[in-house]
Amino acid sequence: MEHSYEALRLILDSITEHIVVIDEAGRIQYANRSWSEFGSRNECSLGTGWEGVNYIDECDKAAAMGDDFGAQAKAGILSVINRETPAFYFEYPCHSPDEKRWFMMRVTALDMESKAYFVISHQNITERKLAEEEVRSIARLDGLTDIPNRRTLDEFLHNEWRRCARLQKPISLAIVDLDHFKLLNDIYGHQSGDDCLVRIGRLLKGFASRPSDLCARYGGEEFALVWGGTSREQAEPLSNRLLDEIFALNINNSHSPIGKYLTASIGLAVMVPQKGQTEIELIRRADSMLYRAKESGRNRVNCE
Ligand SMILES: Nc1nc2c(ncn2[C@@H]2O[C@H](COP(=O)(O)OP(=O)(O)OP(=O)(O)O)[C@@H](O)[C@H]2O)c(=O)[nH]1
Q1: Does any ligand 1 atom lie closer than 6 A to the CB of residue 180?
Q2: For the PAS domain, which residue ranges apply (predicted)?
Q3: 51 Cβ partners below 8 Å, 6+ apart?
Q4: How far apart are CA 32 and CA 293, in angstroms?
């Protein structure tokens, strides 16, 4: 069987990986059925017929249309052709309008009948990529409230700070700390405390609706809101509305000296980032405003 050309062709056609073989100039010399079928199903630039197609030119065309992966694929293929590396591996997205897809491209040399050829195979790795995306998104969220966690906040704040520095726009940070939450936990139990944190998280999501906004769980019963491109005139009423809405949830905290429903305190800082400053200064200011809000009676917004 191994001597039968027909048998080998059938075997290659039965493989789900898309396989093409090119020569040193990049001209396609062979394509298996999976490769041809994928091309025709997806109206890929290479189309159904492969005769006369130069694979490297196709990568160039993709790169010229702004596809960075085209340029990377070409560089990798050339590195194998020039024998700078024995193999090239490359993961790239190839999404269709209605589904996400990723492929792993492998390029290896194949010396045959004293001529050099190169095998390029594409394996569908979508399942693994989707699982990785899921893990990444779980790692970015707080397990209890399902809103971004501290790590995500730090990253977002860093990027938003830099964006606002570039545009010389104000950036606001509100640190929201629930008042006498320990009493709520002590009287109604830890589970009620958890339920309450979940409700607050849900409420906060409604205060972070723009791409330049983010709400996050900052610590135990502390939350944070970043409002990029937002001035004090906009952030202060927003913060006051947030306090009103927390109170309007009517979450019992009967032993709180402030009132029978749960309240919160907010430290608000607003800065237009200047040279030499970092977002640490914004956090420091919001923290000190929160401290003052707590010191001066809680259930209020303090803004410097
Ligand atoms: N149920 C629950 N409680 C939490 C969680 N994280 C922190 N806490 C509780 O939050 C309470 C915070 O207490 P404190 O730091 O004294 O603050 P506080 O009672 O809110 O008082 P002030 O902030 O000064 O108004 C503690 O009892 C923590 O156990 C959590 O994930 N779930």
Answers
A1: yes
A2: 4-38
A3: 28
A4: 70
**CB contact burial 89-124 (16+ within 10 A = b; e otherwise):** ebebebeeeeeeebbbbbbeeeeeeeeebbbbbbeb
Residue 218 Cβ inside 6 Å of ligand 1? The answer reads no
Considering the four listed CATH numbers 3.30.230.10, 3.30.450.20, 3.40.50.2300, 3.40.830.10, the one that applies to the domain covering 5-129 is 3.30.450.20
Give pLDDT tens digits for 143-187: 999 999 999 999 999 999 999 999 999 999 999 999 999 999 999
**Identity of the amino acid at 42:** N
Report yes or no: 112 and 12 within 8 Å, Cβ to Cβ.
no
**Token code pair at residue 224:** 């944070």
Q: Distances from the Cα of 262 to the Cαs of 185, 200, 291, 295, 299, in angstroms?
A: 12, 11, 18, 17, 9
Tokens of 239: 């913060």
pTM above 0.80, yes or no: no
Cα(76)–Cα(108) distance, rounded to whole angstroms? 10
CA of 221 to the centre of ligand 1 (A): 5
- Say how many Å lie between the CA of residue 138 and the centre of ligand 1: 24
Is 133 among the residues known to form the active site?
no
